[in-house]
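Supplementary Methods. Inverse-folding protocol.

Structures were first reduced to a discrete structure-token string of length 349. This string, shown here, constituted the complete conditioning input.
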């Protein structure tokens, strides 16, 4: 290899070459440029709009354009409606500072189809150090992006499943611990019924994309298991955040089950009125039984009463007030902000 040989454009000479290779390096460089599988284009930096002056076969295949439609035009022709202005600004900054840089940008083929382009820009200077050309290589990272997006979605899903599972298991644990019965069969049945109630709200959440559920749907779903008649449900539209749906659903189930065994739903002439209203950020729910056992739904200090306190008061931070009347029970539940409850429960799981 001869010493001190210069080229018209810096970087034109290979780092290592045989004597014959040095003699043929221009022809070999053109051959390599044309035959490489990486899409490559060269733009003339000495002209105002940086027109493309060279494009290899891989670039033509990637973009779908023939050479005559590309050469002499700026690469911005590959940009489209959804191309990020930020990515375009990054490219402009690289070129204006005459430096190397890599940018991922959404480009479009001639047929209009989009692809994610990992664009690497590199300046080529002449002997006096002036910018002469910009070399640009492309890598189609569309499939990689799809895989990356899928992996991120799967990761979020796994985190969400983990959270949901912990939330459900915490409630199931409460059900098992708080159930009391000397009879194994009665104990097993009571646990099964509560887990089924939990399952109903779980399905309701799934149908609503795990975001929230209507309080009316929660109440109707749990009460409807015991009676579709003599029940009046009335209240404004209230959306319950996902973390609060299952605790509230389980509490409604307990009230309905107790009403069906001891209260208004245990008698043919009994009636149950369920209503709610907003008070500031909070919620007030009224459960009014008429025509049942005069001692009302909370007469039995068993699992149902204990669970109501555990769920509505301890877990949701609410307050339960009971008024045993001659005609039945009026139970009032005051809950603070449902949104704050949801965030608090989520942080604990």
């Amino acid at each position: 290899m001869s010493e001190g040989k210069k080229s018209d454009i810096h970087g034109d000479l290979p780092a290592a070459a045989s004597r014959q290779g040095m003699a043929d390096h221009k022809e070999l460089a053109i051959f390599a440029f044309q035959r490489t599988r990486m899409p490559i284009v060269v733009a003339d930096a000495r002209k105002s709009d940086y027109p493309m002056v060279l494009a290899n076969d891989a670039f033509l295949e990637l973009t779908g354009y023939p050479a005559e439609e590309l050469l002499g035009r700026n690469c911005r022709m590959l940009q489209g409606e959804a191309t990020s202005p930020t990515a375009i600004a990054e490219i402009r900054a690289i070129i204006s500072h005459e430096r190397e840089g890599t940018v991922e940008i959404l480009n479009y083929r001639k047929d209009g189809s989009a692809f994610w382009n990992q664009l690497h820009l590199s300046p080529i200077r002449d002997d006096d150090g002036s910018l002469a050309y910009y070399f640009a290589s492309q890598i189609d990272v569309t499939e990689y992006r799809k895989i990356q997006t899928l992996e991120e979605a799967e990761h979020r899903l796994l985190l969400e499943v983990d959270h949901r599972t912990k939330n459900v298991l915490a409630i199931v644990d409460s059900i098992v611990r708080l159930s009391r019965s000397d009879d194994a069969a009665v104990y097993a049945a009571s646990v099964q019924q509560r887990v089924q109630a939990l399952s109903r709200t779980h399905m309701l959440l799934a149908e609503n994309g795990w975001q929230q559920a209507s309080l009316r749907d929660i109440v109707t779903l749990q009460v409807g298991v015991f009676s579709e008649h003599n029940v009046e449900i009335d209240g404004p539209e209230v959306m319950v955040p996902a973390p609060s749906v299952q605790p509230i659903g389980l509490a409604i189930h307990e009230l309905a089950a107790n009403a069906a065994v001891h209260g208004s739903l245990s008698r043919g002439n009994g009636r149950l009125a369920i209503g709610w209203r907003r008070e500031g950020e909070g919620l007030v729910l009224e459960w009014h039984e008429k025509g049942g056992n005069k001692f009302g739904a909370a007469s039995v200090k068993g699992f149902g009463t204990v669970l109501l306190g555990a769920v509505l008061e301890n877990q949701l931070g609410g307050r339960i007030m009971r008024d045993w009347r001659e005609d039945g029970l009026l139970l009032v539940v005051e809950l603070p902000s449902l949104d704050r409850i949801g965030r608090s429960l989520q942080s604990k799981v």
